[in-house]
Amino acid sequence: MDRRIAARIRTERESRGWSLSDLAEKASVSRAMIHKIERGESSPTANLLGKLSGAFGLSMSTLLARAETRQGRLLRMEEQPTWQDPETGYLRRHVSPGSDLPFDIIHITLPPGKQVPMPASAYIFLRQLIWVLSGELVFVEGEVIHEMKQGDCLELGPPADCIFRNATREPCTYAVAILKIS
Description:
Elements: H1 2-15, H2 20-27, H3 31-38, H4 46-56, H5 60-68, E1 82-84, E2 91-94, E3 103-110, E4 115-118, E5 126-134, E6 136-141, E7 144-149, E8 153-155, E9 162-165, E10 172-180
Antiparallel strand pairs: 1-2, 2-3, 3-10, 4-9, 5-8, 5-10, 6-7, 6-9
Helix pairs in contact: 1-5, 2-4
Protein backbone atom coordinates (compact mmCIF):
# COMPACT_ATOMS: atom_id res chain seq x y z
CA MET A 1 0.00 0.00 0.00
CA ASP A 2 2.82 2.44 0.81
CA ARG A 3 4.20 1.92 -2.72
CA ARG A 4 0.82 2.75 -4.25
CA ILE A 5 0.51 5.87 -2.07
CA ALA A 6 4.04 6.93 -3.04
CA ALA A 7 3.25 6.47 -6.73
CA ARG A 8 -0.04 8.37 -6.38
CA ILE A 9 1.64 11.32 -4.66
CA ARG A 10 4.25 11.50 -7.39
CA THR A 11 1.55 11.23 -10.09
CA GLU A 12 -0.52 14.01 -8.50
CA ARG A 13 2.56 16.24 -8.19
CA GLU A 14 3.83 15.60 -11.71
CA SER A 15 0.40 15.97 -13.31
CA ARG A 16 0.32 19.52 -11.94
CA GLY A 17 3.82 20.25 -13.25
CA TRP A 18 5.09 20.80 -9.69
CA SER A 19 8.61 20.20 -8.48
CA LEU A 20 9.29 18.64 -5.09
CA SER A 21 9.99 22.15 -3.82
CA ASP A 22 6.64 23.42 -5.14
CA LEU A 23 4.74 20.69 -3.31
CA ALA A 24 6.81 21.16 -0.16
CA GLU A 25 5.94 24.85 -0.08
CA LYS A 26 2.23 24.33 -0.77
CA ALA A 27 1.91 21.55 1.85
CA SER A 28 4.24 23.05 4.49
CA VAL A 29 6.23 19.80 4.48
CA SER A 30 9.96 19.41 3.95
CA ARG A 31 11.17 18.61 0.44
CA ALA A 32 13.31 15.81 1.88
CA MET A 33 10.29 14.13 3.49
CA ILE A 34 8.29 14.24 0.24
CA HIS A 35 11.29 12.79 -1.61
CA LYS A 36 11.54 9.92 0.91
CA ILE A 37 7.83 9.18 0.63
CA GLU A 38 7.84 9.21 -3.18
CA ARG A 39 10.84 6.83 -3.21
CA GLY A 40 9.10 4.51 -0.73
CA GLU A 41 11.75 5.10 1.93
CA SER A 42 9.28 6.45 4.50
CA SER A 43 5.63 5.80 5.31
CA PRO A 44 3.57 8.99 5.52
CA THR A 45 1.60 9.72 8.68
CA ALA A 46 -2.10 10.58 8.57
CA ASN A 47 -1.27 14.21 9.36
CA LEU A 48 1.26 14.37 6.54
CA LEU A 49 -1.22 12.80 4.07
CA GLY A 50 -3.75 15.43 5.14
CA LYS A 51 -1.28 18.21 4.33
CA LEU A 52 -0.31 16.72 0.96
CA SER A 53 -3.90 16.08 -0.10
CA GLY A 54 -4.85 19.62 0.90
CA ALA A 55 -2.03 21.00 -1.26
CA PHE A 56 -3.44 19.02 -4.20
CA GLY A 57 -6.95 20.36 -3.51
CA LEU A 58 -8.11 16.83 -2.66
CA SER A 59 -9.46 15.23 0.46
CA MET A 60 -7.24 12.64 2.11
CA SER A 61 -9.96 10.12 1.30
CA THR A 62 -9.81 10.98 -2.42
CA LEU A 63 -6.02 10.81 -2.50
CA LEU A 64 -6.00 7.40 -0.83
CA ALA A 65 -8.92 6.15 -2.93
CA ARG A 66 -6.99 7.01 -6.09
CA ALA A 67 -4.11 4.92 -4.76
CA GLU A 68 -6.06 1.97 -3.44
CA THR A 69 -9.48 1.20 -4.89
CA ARG A 70 -10.58 -0.85 -7.85
CA GLN A 71 -13.67 -0.09 -9.88
CA GLY A 72 -16.84 -2.13 -9.44
CA ARG A 73 -20.08 -2.13 -7.51
CA LEU A 74 -19.10 -4.78 -4.95
CA LEU A 75 -16.02 -4.52 -2.75
CA ARG A 76 -15.69 -7.53 -0.46
CA MET A 77 -14.18 -7.01 2.98
CA GLU A 78 -11.05 -9.01 2.18
CA GLU A 79 -10.47 -6.76 -0.86
CA GLN A 80 -11.06 -3.48 0.97
CA PRO A 81 -7.74 -1.63 1.04
CA THR A 82 -6.27 -0.75 4.42
CA TRP A 83 -3.62 1.69 5.47
CA GLN A 84 -1.99 2.06 8.88
CA ASP A 85 -0.42 5.25 10.21
CA PRO A 86 3.11 4.24 11.25
CA GLU A 87 3.15 6.85 14.01
CA THR A 88 -0.13 6.12 15.84
CA GLY A 89 -1.32 2.71 14.61
CA TYR A 90 -4.50 4.37 13.29
CA LEU A 91 -6.00 1.84 10.85
CA ARG A 92 -8.06 3.03 7.89
CA ARG A 93 -10.15 0.68 5.74
CA HIS A 94 -11.80 1.99 2.57
CA VAL A 95 -15.18 0.23 2.65
CA SER A 96 -17.00 1.68 -0.35
CA PRO A 97 -16.40 0.38 -3.89
CA GLY A 98 -14.58 2.57 -6.37
CA SER A 99 -17.26 4.18 -8.50
CA ASP A 100 -18.37 7.51 -9.88
CA LEU A 101 -20.61 8.13 -6.85
CA PRO A 102 -19.54 11.25 -4.94
CA PHE A 103 -19.75 9.25 -1.69
CA ASP A 104 -17.26 7.18 0.31
CA ILE A 105 -17.39 5.17 3.53
CA ILE A 106 -14.24 4.76 5.58
CA HIS A 107 -13.84 2.50 8.66
CA ILE A 108 -11.29 3.66 11.23
CA THR A 109 -9.77 1.97 14.27
CA LEU A 110 -8.03 4.42 16.59
CA PRO A 111 -5.83 2.70 19.22
CA PRO A 112 -6.17 3.54 22.92
CA GLY A 113 -4.47 6.73 24.07
CA LYS A 114 -3.72 7.94 20.53
CA GLN A 115 -4.71 11.04 18.60
CA VAL A 116 -4.51 12.05 14.95
CA PRO A 117 -4.53 15.73 13.96
CA MET A 118 -5.88 16.71 10.54
CA PRO A 119 -5.44 20.12 8.90
CA ALA A 120 -8.48 22.00 7.63
CA SER A 121 -7.11 21.63 4.09
CA ALA A 122 -7.95 17.89 4.27
CA TYR A 123 -11.68 18.76 4.45
CA ILE A 124 -12.05 21.16 1.54
CA PHE A 125 -14.80 20.16 -0.93
CA LEU A 126 -16.27 17.62 1.51
CA ARG A 127 -19.24 17.08 3.77
CA GLN A 128 -18.68 14.43 6.42
CA LEU A 129 -20.41 12.45 9.11
CA ILE A 130 -18.57 10.62 11.90
CA TRP A 131 -20.43 7.66 13.41
CA VAL A 132 -18.88 5.96 16.46
CA LEU A 133 -19.30 2.18 16.13
CA SER A 134 -17.57 1.18 19.38
CA GLY A 135 -15.65 2.87 22.16
CA GLU A 136 -15.39 6.61 22.71
CA LEU A 137 -14.02 9.38 20.52
CA VAL A 138 -13.12 12.94 21.41
CA PHE A 139 -13.33 14.96 18.21
CA VAL A 140 -11.85 18.45 18.37
CA GLU A 141 -13.23 20.60 15.53
CA GLY A 142 -11.44 23.95 15.63
CA GLU A 143 -12.36 25.34 19.05
CA VAL A 144 -15.29 22.93 19.64
CA ILE A 145 -14.86 19.63 21.50
CA HIS A 146 -17.31 16.79 20.81
CA GLU A 147 -17.25 13.86 23.25
CA MET A 148 -18.82 10.94 21.40
CA LYS A 149 -19.83 7.45 22.49
CA GLN A 150 -21.00 4.33 20.67
CA GLY A 151 -23.89 5.11 18.34
CA ASP A 152 -23.31 8.90 18.28
CA CYS A 153 -23.14 10.56 14.86
CA LEU A 154 -21.73 14.03 14.14
CA GLU A 155 -22.02 16.16 11.02
CA LEU A 156 -18.84 18.19 10.57
CA GLY A 157 -19.09 21.92 10.10
CA PRO A 158 -16.98 24.10 7.80
CA PRO A 159 -13.35 22.99 7.34
CA ALA A 160 -11.29 23.51 10.50
CA ASP A 161 -8.15 22.00 11.95
CA CYS A 162 -9.32 18.84 13.75
CA ILE A 163 -8.06 16.18 16.14
CA PHE A 164 -9.40 12.64 16.45
CA ARG A 165 -8.56 11.50 20.00
CA ASN A 166 -9.09 8.22 21.85
CA ALA A 167 -8.52 9.06 25.52
CA THR A 168 -9.61 5.61 26.75
CA ARG A 169 -7.85 2.27 27.27
CA GLU A 170 -9.93 0.52 24.58
CA PRO A 171 -9.78 0.87 20.78
CA CYS A 172 -12.33 3.20 19.21
CA THR A 173 -13.88 2.28 15.87
CA TYR A 174 -15.85 4.75 13.81
CA ALA A 175 -17.11 5.21 10.29
CA VAL A 176 -16.66 8.35 8.26
CA ALA A 177 -19.23 8.96 5.54
CA ILE A 178 -17.87 11.42 2.99
CA LEU A 179 -19.87 13.34 0.41
CA LYS A 180 -17.64 14.98 -2.19
CA ILE A 181 -18.91 18.38 -3.34
CA SER A 182 -17.47 20.61 -6.01
